[in-house]
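Now for one specimen:
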Amino acid sequence: MSDFVFITGNQHKADYLAKWLGQEVKHQKIDLVEIQSLDLHTVVENKARRAYDLVQRPVLVEDVALTFHALGHLPGPLVKWFLEEIGTEGLCKLLRPFEDKRATASIMYGLFDGKVLHTFEAHVEGIVADQPRSLDSLEWKNSLSWNSVFIPNGTTKTYAEMTDDELKPFSHRAKAIAKLQAYLHSQQ
């Protein structure tokens, strides 16, 4: 099922996926009403089914979560709304009262052909920085991304401080894409 359309309006995500898959990726922006759930699989499955209903061809969707261990399951898949409301600095402030700064970055891709949903997920453990840090602070400050606050285990840099080559061994996205790539190759 290599003839799918990646449902995203984010050119950077489409380019990243194409780069790590090593193939051209068709993508399309669709305004989907996303359900709210702390279960990443539930969000991805619903998104994939809604997208398929609109484009009537195999679709690939993705969703991410950033879970703070001190806050149970939060923000989890709701991180986008946390970012919209309090920004990256607010994410850091949420954990200031807690000793436990541990977090889990998660991603799930869902490939749906109208009948079967295949999911590819990855999780990376790390901590939340005391304040947002990035190579280009203005770019990350103005984006709805938590990359400037997440420091994966095994490094002292946030995702946003790393080059693509530095990021690959720590990237939850790269790990999930590798699983997707293995599946796509097995279908040829």
Q: What stands out?
A: DSSP finds six helices and seven strands in the chain. Residues 20 and 177 are 7 Å apart (CA to CA). The longest helix spans residues 79-95.
